[in-house]
Amino acid sequence: MTQRYDAVVIGGGHNGLISAAYLARAGLRTLVLERRHVLGGAAVTEEIVPGFRFSVASYVVSLLRPEIIRELDLPRHGLDILPLDGTFTPLPEGGGPWGSGHARGGAHDGDYLWRVNDHGRTIRELRRWSKVDAEAYDEYGRLMVEMARFIKPILGIVPPDPTGRDPREFLPLAGLLRTFQSLPETQQAVFVQLMTMSAADFLDQWLETDPLKATMSASGIIGTFQGVRSPGTAYVLLHHYMGEIDGAFRAWGIPKGGTGSVSMAIASAAQAAAAEIRTEAPVARIVVRNGRATGVALESGEEIEAATVLSSVDARRTFLGFLEPGTLDPAFEEEVRRFKFRGSSGKVNLAVDRLPDFTCLPGDGEHLRGAISFSPSVEYMERAYDDAKYGRFSTRPYIDMIIPTLVDPSMAPPGKHVISCFIQYAPYHLDPALGTWDDQREAFGDAVVDTIAERAPNIRDVVVGRQVLTPLDLERTLGLTEGNIFQGELSLEQLFFNRPVPGYARFRSPVRDLWLCGSATHPGGGIMGANGRLAALEVLRSQRRRAA
Questions:
Q1: How many whole angstroms separate alpha carbon 101 and alpha carbon 438?
Q2: pTM passes above 0.70
């Protein structure tokens, strides 16, 4: 007997689960279908090495929208975010590869830069490097907070269709325009710069300390196949600045139990609202009759009928993978094919029996409790990008390293630790001369460990297990096309009413009752949840209009 639902959600990542929670709370009989054995998509916790649990892909939280936490009452369902304390940037001895990293020379070779959540300590640390930067850092921070406050409302706006005929779609932008007009001219100019400049060039206007600029500009390249001096990366910098924890902008945290605990809290909220969730239920195709989505067919052959189908997987997989050929207009399909993924990230998860010992600041101190950034200079970051441009993984990559067990010891056996290493750059399309990613996986993992060893020589001795995820692994395991962690690059031409396809940025699709709700939609990627919430609210709004 065919099962019937009001809504079926394809994909049990955090956005799909959020959509399901809001739809179920509105009284719709809702089903989530996840192809893997575990919920969460890229926000998942798994025991890869016996006794060691990893946030396999996504590993920190900042962008998760406060209204979602509040409306779904996620703390009651187990969400607990533990703050990260600052960023530690260790420098190699003797300047290391590609120069020292200080604007005035090599005086700080083998040194470190350490910014913490204690503002006074951070300013004293910056003053050790540059009195100019110690003064400018506050000015820059205040300005970015103002920019984040200005642009933050866009995260809750459904993009208008520029070709549409309904002027009401543009009303939310009117308030944003009025706010922009009320900004001081200096802030208006800065906003224009953020939309057009590179992250490094934007930071050059305030700062002179090379490791500081390199570390801060790294936020501008996450999820993009661009370098820190590529135009447009300043906006990505702002995108990450919009994160907050308990109202504090630019605050980052580690979910207790790993990022999978975020997904499980959302799933619990959805189930409390009577949503059904099935794992190991891969969808083979979306059933379309007379131009309308009427349900899904599973790989098992089972068919499930639904009044509405939402897909939290990316646009290419949804439109070119789940729909029968000929369902869509060829012009629309061509737009989907033009949407850029260009995955450039990898992940290396390490199980260790002791903590890494950094030469520049030895011991198990509090400097290990925050992010550890391998970004000694802007030139270092650009050289890493140079490798990727020619189809090679970076021999000395940018690494964002976290040791979550210093905040949440439950992730490893007593006295042992897990280390999360996010890597940029690892291009999805390798130079054919290198072979395939299956050929290069271990060499890539070795390059990451070797880079860490240049600053913490004991790392090779303390590793007892590791997981290396290439962009191809992210695609195969997590369904991220080309391994792009945001389901498509966060480049300016792929944002707002262009995401994922011009004319279809309002979560709708050319197929009636088929919607997108994942990171391929506005406002983009990260553990944010705005996509899933906005899509669900648009579905409900559409149903109310029909009923009226």
A1: 34
A2: yes
